C-alpha cells in the first residue's frame, strides 16, 4: 500500500478520535445545558465522518474491496444530529422554568412553539 | 400521467442510491433492483406524502451543499478551539431571534438543521406561527451580525431553491 | 502506521466515553442525561467502526448502521417523553 494513503488513513482516524474526545470534553466541562449541547452535536458528527471516510478508503484501497456503504452512516448521522439536538433544546426550554425569562421575544404575535399553549400539538 | 406514475422523481433516485449503497456494489442487477424499489415505494406510499416541494434551482443545491460542508468543517474547528482553550463561563452565550422570510416547511426544516450544524449555533425552537427561529449562540460578540450572516449565507440560497 | 493510529484513537475514544459517563452520572437534569446517552451512542458507533478497521471485517458496518438508527429513535422518544409526558398519544 502506498505510503501516502497509509498516512492519510492514519491522519483521518486520529482527527476523528480527536473531535470525538473534544465533543465529550465539552459535554463534561461546560457549565449549562444549552452550552453542553454545542459540543456533542457538532464535534461528534465530524469525528464520526472522518472515521467513516478513513474506513472507506481503507477497505477500498488497502483491501481491494470496493466499499461505499460507510457514506450511508455519515449521511444518516448528518441528517439526524440536528433533529435530536433540536428536540433536546425544546425539552430543555420546557423544563428549565427559570430560564424562560432569558428567551428573546419572537417579534411575532405568537410565542415560542414549545411554550405556547394555544398550539401545543407540534413536535 | 407522469405525475401519477412517478409522484416523487427525486425520491426514486434517492431510494435507488440508498439501495446501491446498502448492497455495497455497483452491478447492473443491483442498480435495476434499486430502480424497481425506487419506482414501487413512492407509488405505494404516495398517499402519505401530500406535499410536493419543487426544487427551482438545481445548481443552487450543489452550491448550498458545498457551502454547508465547508462551514461544518470550519465550525467544528472553531467549537473545538472554544471548548479546549476557553473557560466555560467566559463564553458569551445568548439566544437570538432570526425572523424568517421562508414559508415552505421543508425549507425551514433545512434551515434549522443547517444552523445546528454550522458555526457555534444551535436552533432551539420555532415560533408558534412559524415565522421566527430561536437560535442559541455559543460565543458571539455581535448578535445582529450573526443573524445577518445566517440570513445572507443560508436563507438567501434556500429561498432561491424552494421559492 | 495505521495500527499505531488505531491504538491512540481507541484510547481517545475510551477517554471520551468515560467523560460522557461522568456527565450521565452527574446530571443534573434529565435532558443532560439524554444528551449524554445520545453522545454515548455516537461514541459506540466510532468504536465499532474502529474495530472494523482494526480487524478488517466489513461486517461491522451493519452493526454501526443499526446502532445509529436505534440511537436516533431512542433520543427522539426520550425527548418526546420529556416534552409531552408520554411517547405515543
Automatic annotation (TrEMBL), chain A:
<keyword id="KW-0812">Transmembrane</keyword>
<feature type="transmembrane region" description="Helical">
    <location>
        <begin position="6"/>
        <end position="28"/>
    </location>
</feature>
<dbReference type="GO" id="GO:0015385">
    <property type="term" value="F:sodium:proton antiporter activity"/>
</dbReference>
<feature type="transmembrane region" description="Helical">
    <location>
        <begin position="71"/>
        <end position="89"/>
    </location>
</feature>
<feature type="region of interest" description="Disordered">
    <location>
        <begin position="99"/>
        <end position="123"/>
    </location>
</feature>
<dbReference type="Pfam" id="PF03334">
    <property type="entry name" value="PhaG_MnhG_YufB"/>
</dbReference>
<keyword id="KW-0472">Membrane</keyword>
<keyword id="KW-1133">Transmembrane helix</keyword>
<feature type="transmembrane region" description="Helical">
    <location>
        <begin position="40"/>
        <end position="59"/>
    </location>
</feature>
<protein>
    <submittedName>
        <fullName>Na+/H+ antiporter subunit G</fullName>
    </submittedName>
</protein>
<dbReference type="InterPro" id="IPR005133">
    <property type="entry name" value="PhaG_MnhG_YufB"/>
</dbReference>
From TrEMBL, chain B:
<dbReference type="GO" id="GO:0008324">
    <property type="term" value="F:monoatomic cation transmembrane transporter activity"/>
</dbReference>
<keyword id="KW-1003">Cell membrane</keyword>
<protein>
    <submittedName>
        <fullName>Na+/H+ antiporter subunit E</fullName>
    </submittedName>
</protein>
<dbReference type="Pfam" id="PF01899">
    <property type="entry name" value="MNHE"/>
</dbReference>
<dbReference type="InterPro" id="IPR002758">
    <property type="entry name" value="Cation_antiport_E"/>
</dbReference>
<keyword id="KW-0812">Transmembrane</keyword>
<feature type="transmembrane region" description="Helical">
    <location>
        <begin position="6"/>
        <end position="23"/>
    </location>
</feature>
<feature type="transmembrane region" description="Helical">
    <location>
        <begin position="61"/>
        <end position="84"/>
    </location>
</feature>
<feature type="transmembrane region" description="Helical">
    <location>
        <begin position="30"/>
        <end position="49"/>
    </location>
</feature>
<comment type="similarity">
    <text>Belongs to the CPA3 antiporters (TC 2.A.63) subunit E family.</text>
</comment>
<keyword id="KW-1133">Transmembrane helix</keyword>
<dbReference type="GO" id="GO:0005886">
    <property type="term" value="C:plasma membrane"/>
</dbReference>
<keyword id="KW-0472">Membrane</keyword>
UniProtKB/TrEMBL annotation, chain C:
<dbReference type="Pfam" id="PF04066">
    <property type="entry name" value="MrpF_PhaF"/>
</dbReference>
<dbReference type="GO" id="GO:0005886">
    <property type="term" value="C:plasma membrane"/>
</dbReference>
<feature type="transmembrane region" description="Helical">
    <location>
        <begin position="6"/>
        <end position="25"/>
    </location>
</feature>
<dbReference type="InterPro" id="IPR007208">
    <property type="entry name" value="MrpF/PhaF-like"/>
</dbReference>
<feature type="transmembrane region" description="Helical">
    <location>
        <begin position="37"/>
        <end position="58"/>
    </location>
</feature>
<dbReference type="GO" id="GO:0015385">
    <property type="term" value="F:sodium:proton antiporter activity"/>
</dbReference>
<keyword id="KW-0813">Transport</keyword>
<keyword id="KW-1133">Transmembrane helix</keyword>
<keyword id="KW-1003">Cell membrane</keyword>
<keyword id="KW-0812">Transmembrane</keyword>
<comment type="similarity">
    <text>Belongs to the CPA3 antiporters (TC 2.A.63) subunit F family.</text>
</comment>
<feature type="transmembrane region" description="Helical">
    <location>
        <begin position="64"/>
        <end position="83"/>
    </location>
</feature>
<protein>
    <submittedName>
        <fullName>K+/H+ antiporter subunit F</fullName>
    </submittedName>
</protein>
<keyword id="KW-0472">Membrane</keyword>
Amino acid at each position: 500500500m502506498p505510503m501516502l494513503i497509509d498516512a492519510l488513513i492514519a491522519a483521518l482516524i486520529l482527527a476523528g478520535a480527536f473531535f470525538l474526545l473534544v465533543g465529550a470534553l465539552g459535554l463534561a466541562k461546560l457549565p449549562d445545558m444549552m452550552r453542553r449541547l454545542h459540543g456533542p452535536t457538532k464535534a461528534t458528527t465530524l469525528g464520526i465522518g472522518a472515521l467513516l471516510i478513513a474506513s472507506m478508503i481503507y477497505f477500498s484501497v488497502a483491501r481491494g474491496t470496493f466499499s461505499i456503504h460507510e457514506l450511508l452512516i455519515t449521511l444518516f448521522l448528518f441528517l439526524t444530529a440536528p433533529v435530536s439536538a433540536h428536540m433536546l433544546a425544546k425539552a430543555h426550554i420546557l423544563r428549565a422554568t427559570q430560564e424562560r425569562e432569558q428567551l428573546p421575544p419572537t417579534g411575532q404575535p405568537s410565542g415560542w412553539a414549545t411554550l405556547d399553549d394555544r398550539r401545543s400539538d407540534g413536535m | 400521467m407522469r405525475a401519477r406514475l412517478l409522484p416523487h422523481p427525486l425520491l426514486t433516485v434517492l431510494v435507488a442510491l440508498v439501495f446501491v449503497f446498502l448492497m455495497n456494489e455497483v452491478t447492473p442487477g443491483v442498480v435495476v433492483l434499486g430502480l424497481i424499489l425506487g419506482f414501487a415505494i413512492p407509488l405505494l406510499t404516495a398517499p402519505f406524502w401530500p406535499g410536493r416541494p419543487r426544487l427551482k434551482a438545481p445548481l443552487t443545491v450543489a452550491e448550498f451543499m458545498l457551502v454547508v460542508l465547508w462551514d461544518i468543517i470550519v465550525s467544528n474547528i472553531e467549537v473545538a478551539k472554544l471548548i479546549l482553550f476557553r473557560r466555560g463561563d467566559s463564553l458569551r452565550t445568548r439566544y437570538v431571534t432570526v425572523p424568517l422570510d421562508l414559508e415552505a416547511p421543508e425549507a425551514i426544516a433545512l434551515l434549522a438543521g443547517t444552523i445546528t450544524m454550522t458555526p457555534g449555533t444551535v436552533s432551539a425552537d420555532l415560533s408558534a406561527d412559524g415565522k421566527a427561529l430561536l437560535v442559541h449562540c455559543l460565543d458571539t460578540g455581535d448578535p445582529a451580525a450573526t443573524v445577518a450572516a445566517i440570513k445572507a449565507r443560508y436563507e438567501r440560497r434556500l429561498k432561491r431553491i424552494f421559492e | 502506521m495505521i495500527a499505531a493510529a488505531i491504538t491512540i484513537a481507541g484510547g481517545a475514544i475510551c477517554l471520551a466515553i468515560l467523560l460522557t459517563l461522568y456527565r450521565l452520572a452527574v446530571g443534573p437534569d434529565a435532558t443532560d442525561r439524554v444528551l449524554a446517552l445520545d453522545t454515548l451512542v455516537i461514541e459506540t458507533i466510532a468504536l465499532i467502526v474502529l474495530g472494523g478497521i482494526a480487524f478488517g471485517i466489513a461486517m461491522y458496518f451493519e452493526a454501526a448502521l443499526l446502532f445509529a438508527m436505534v440511537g436516533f429513535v431512542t433520543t427522539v422518544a426520550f425527548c418526546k417523553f420529556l416534552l409531552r409526558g408520554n411517547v405515543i398519544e
